[in-house]
Amino acid sequence: MSLLVKPYIGCNLKCSYCYENSYRKKIEKPKLDYNLKAVLKKMEEYKNLEITLHGGEILCLPHKDLETLLSKSYEIHKKSGIQTNATLIDNKKIALFKKYNTHVGISWDGPGELSKFRPGSQKVGKIIDKLVKEGVSVSLIMVISKANAGTKELRKKLKSFLLDLEKKGIRGGRLNPCLCAPRYELSMEKLKEAYLDLADFCLKNNLKWSPFCDIVNGLKNKGRVCHFMGCDIFSTQSATVVLGDGSVVNCMRVNQEYVPLRHPVQYQTRNEILYETPQKYGGCKDCKYWRACYGGCPAAAFDNDWRNRTYICELWKCLFEFYENIFNQLDIPLPVLNNNSRDESRVCNEGVGHGDEHGDHDDAGKAGHGDEHGDEHGDEHGDHEHGDEHGDHDDNAGKDGHGDEHGDEHGDEHGDC
Amino acid sequence: MVKNFVRVIPKKGGEKWPSKLGEMSNLFGQAEYEMVKQGYRKAAIIHIDEHNYQQMTEKMNKDGLIFTPFLKSGHYEGFSHCHKEVKPGEPYYWYGCLTKTYKDAQEFKRADGTVNGKNTDHKKYGEMLGYPECCSSYFIKAFPKNYDPIWLEKQGEVSGYPECNQMLRYFGARITSHFSCSSTCKKTREIGQKWLSVMKGIDKKLTEELYDLLNSPCTWNSYHGVVQVETPYFIGLTHTFPLLKKPRIINWNKKRII
């Protein structure tokens, strides 16, 4: 589980598909008006979580403030981490990274035209080289879009870049599909074609990129990225975000119109809905990959409604199938596919170290954390029983179980059904 | 389907709302009692926790009221018209009616399905609880189709009186105790005015806040067994009737009619 520290939501780049664009539009011009003291207090309060300095672009902060935050992370964990577009990295910042044992997660889509949707990021390749040379721990998040995977030629360049990275010692990171940005994301057919191609490539070259390793971990019921963990959008257990004013919110990927405070308790409501709702109505009923996937990320749900499964379900299914076939070839059983219970206990966190990290930053190479936190932060939060609501009316109360048992019987009788 | 639950997630700046809603729920509970005491309705359904029984019955005696217990129910999160069988040693509450006279108590008891062994006589029930006839008739028709009958024929932009707004009742906020037949039911509004005056007698400021909340724009979005209600201050989630194919969405009071 991660604490994403986002003191400043602004950015020096204007990436076309950035999910935070809607927040920036809402607040017109982001300002560096964070309350450092409040942010530090929250970092202390949530010190059981792995800390990543995030943004916007975290390196837009004045050097002194950046050092304060890195130093705080280091004080807590003897290491620190940032997620950055890397364009503002210079010698002074590299010195900070070395001083505070900083893992640098870089968001970049590859050299040249591959990063067409990230204007202004051309020099990142050289910066990566420099970081590696200086011995700074580096990983990458790449967004897979029309710019870097829309054609075979583009994918050839992308694969060549992945091999270049491997030579530099960067063997993994994230290849996240571009989502909720129709102008930039691949069509479902192209998406499947691209990811199957990349899955095969990573397999042959022994590269450990997400989502492939997460798909495998899903099939083995091991710790994996939050997309496949059964997310509660109001709690986003795998990512807790601290904003510049010290408020604690959910992962922010799942809300475009508003920023609710984070609910401290994780609910299983979405899992309950998806498990029982037929696939043709947006659910996951009878899906063989249910316990490996849990309906995907609610931020990319059908009709933008978290009560549906992800709209890239087809992509995940074809990848699950790809790896399932390999396991079958090797005669390795996959008990997760033969147990289709709702499984509220969800995945175990044994194994790969990544635990249930959030897909919004990359900490490849860092040790897993996995401390619980949510429940410590109060269990009140206004939840209460229904009490005596629903009018004073009663319909054979206590006799035929009207009310909550009505659903399945009457589901199709109502106008909407 | 979805387990019974109620959840309130405040928006930034709305941190006070979870506890405020609890206060509003208590205010309504007190008003239920007062509405009978002050003679605005013949009966109220109330639930008395086993531990408060003595204290509550003494208060009722003092106020000249009668509590007639119908049954014991275990505590659970869910619709009030369902009851959980109590096993020995488990905590429970008494479900029953509050009236001014023994005659009313017996009449109410005869109408109650949990006691009479038949179906609830909703017409009589509504009459004694002070519901408008139009709303009782609406409920009788609507409830068998959908046990969460918020203006079943409506979706999209809906304007109306706060007194008719039952969309936040699960979270503790409502002025009247019945489902109004329409968002602009004049009879409900009239009855609501009585409730408001009783509530103001208990806590004027809180009553005004309640009124403002129920008059504020909100979106009520019901789908797959969960209703999500978004107000300017918080998001509320609770279980509801499971619409399968598409959500039913009510945008409340975008254009106020008051």
Compute the number of strand runs of chain A. 9
What is the tally of helical segments of chain A?
Answer: 14
Task: State the share of residues found in helices of chain A, binned by percent.
Answer: 25-40%
Spatial arrangement of strands, main beta sheet of chain B? 1-8-7-6-9-5
Spatial arrangement of strands, main beta sheet of chain A: 3-4-5-6-7
Tell the overall outline of chain B.
globular
Global shape of chain A? globular
Order of helices and strands of chain A: EHHEHEHEHEHHEHEHEEHHHHH
Largest interface: A-B, 57 and 82 residues
Largest sheet of chain B: 6 strands, mixed
User: Cα distance, first to last residue of chain B?
Assistant: 39 Å
C-alpha end-to-end distance of chain A: 39 Å
Rg over CA atoms of chain B:
18 Å
Summed up, the helix count of chain B is 8
Helix/strand class of chain A: alpha/beta
Descriptive notes:
With 417 residues, chain A is an alpha/beta fold. Chain A has helices spanning 21-26, 36-45, 63-77, 91-99, 124-133, 146-149, 152-167, 188-205, 212-219, 269-276, 290-293, 313-329, 335-338, 406-410; strands at residues 2-6, 50-53, 80-84, 102-107, 137-144, 172-177, 208-210, 239-243, 248-249. In chain A, the strands form two sheets. Chain A has a five-stranded parallel beta sheet. In chain A, strands 2-1-8-9 form a four-stranded mixed beta sheet. In chain A, α8 links the parallel β6 and β7. In chain A, α2 (36-45) runs parallel beside α3. The longest helix of chain A has 18 residues, at 188-205. Chain A is globular, with a radius of gyration of 22 Å. By secondary structure, chain B is an alpha+beta fold. In chain B, α7 (186-202) packs antiparallel against α8. In chain B, strands 1-8-7-6-9-5 form a six-stranded mixed beta sheet, with no helix packed on it. In chain B, strands 2-4-3 form a three-stranded antiparallel beta sheet. The model of chain B has no long low-confidence stretch (mean pLDDT 91). In chain B, β7 (226-230) and β8 (234-239) form a beta hairpin. Helices cover 36% and strands 21% of the residues of chain B. The radius of gyration of chain B is 18 Å and the shape is globular. The chains are: A alpha/beta (417), B alpha+beta (258). At the A-B interface, α10 and α14 of A face β1, α1, β2, α5 and β8 of B.
